[in-house]
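Work Package 3 (structural annotation) set out to generate three-dimensional models for the target panel prioritized at the project kickoff. During this period the team completed the workflow that converts sequence records into discrete structure tokens, so that structures can be stored uniformly alongside our sequence database. As a representative example, we reproduce one entry of 309 residues exactly as it appears in the project archive.
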Amino acid sequence: MSLNATYLRRVYSRCTGEERGTARSSHLPTPRTIGLTILAMLAFAANSVLCRLALDQGSIDPASFTLVRIGSGVVALWLILACTGRTSLMQGSWRGAFALVAYAAAFSFAYLTLSAGAGSLLLFGAVQATMVTTGLVRGERLTAPQWLGFAVALAGLAVLLMPGAAAPPIGGALLMFAAGIAWGAYSLIGRGAIDPLAATAGNFLRALPLAAILLGLTAMFGTKLDQSGLVYAIASGAVASGLGYTIWYAALPGLSQARGASVQMSVPVITALAGTLVLGETITLRLSLSSAAILGGIALVIASRPRAP
């Protein structure tokens, strides 16, 4: 999962008082912020690894994984809000819930065929492409370096998907790209949230019956859920998602807009390395070149703000 730069800027401004002229973006992050950020990025990367691990072992089907992931996320987020006395502040919307379950379902089905590293890179690239394209449609203007970065990132995606032995399966790639578009839409829907964690909890709660309907619709094709698959799905929902976003929102007040957006580029890299260590996946030359192009291009986009229309 990834947050867009505009959303980060809004959250950061509320948490630090930047809108009141007291921004601290020039300050170096504290050790606490650095530690929280590292934990959050590891949690986000863990989502891909846990899903791929569960599906690769055949211990759970994608629809069941989606339902258990969202359900355990609801429980974890509710407990976290309860500990802070904020259960009555569950927010969110049905639009956000639909986008969330679309992301989670496409994500799970995509990992039937994709490697963890390729899937995470496609997801990240699709999210950022959605953000940039939406901004352009709404009248934002990019600087020349940002246009160059956007073009380089798109070229990287094209290289990754070019036909060949090392290319990811097209079906899985399209599903993951759809997951990225859905997550981009989710971020855009929720970017004005006053309390992002409460909004996330509300969206997870609303997404739960939608995930149950998805499982019912796919049950005719067969379901599978053994103990290891259940554990992986719970870990993905409760720890990598619920706790991961709690940690991320705690880290955001200490990060500038640029740092908050750029640090997320580490997630596909962490995921690829974890896929190699945990799943025995191979980091191919194509994946390495595509990663450099996509992440480098996005870095150029993030480097400077777009000009006002």
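Confidence is low (pLDDT under 50) at residues 1-26.
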